[in-house]
Design brief:
It contains 2 helices and 6 strands. The protein has helices at about 30-40, 45-50; strands at about 5-15, 65-70, 75-85, 85, 90, 95-100. Strand 4 (about 85) and strand 5 form a beta hairpin. The strands form 2 sheets. It has a 4-stranded mixed sheet with strand order 1-2-3-6, with helices on one face. A two-stranded antiparallel ribbon has the order 4-5. By secondary structure, it is mainly beta.
Length: about 130
Amino acid sequence: MNRATRIKLIFQNADSACDPLRDPRSISDKKKASERLVAGSQLNLFPEDEEAGEEFADVPSTAFYYFLAVGEDGTVTAELSSPRAIEGGQFAGFHERIFIVNPGDINRLQIFDDSGDIPDQDFDVVVTSK
């Protein structure tokens, strides 16, 4: 999360991306915590709900954007999108969708075949919040 702008980016695999006629759906259903965070971020649009003791008033105002990526048959698409809500485990509309990698922007990817003579290697991946 960028503390100055109060924007948080979250990675999500999706069934589609960069299709103006179809909203993406997450591959795995979103849980109640995601629903709560996205709902809480909407309150900065409606301050009167915060004053009325709205259920999500304790969640700090943060804009959540999901980086939605799709890699299918060597084709890659990706977008950055801000959901309006999460209902029934899925996105329910978007405030904004920013198309980053449109169909055809990246030539077909070659899938790496690691079944050959290359020895397995261990990599320690460190993920930190900036």
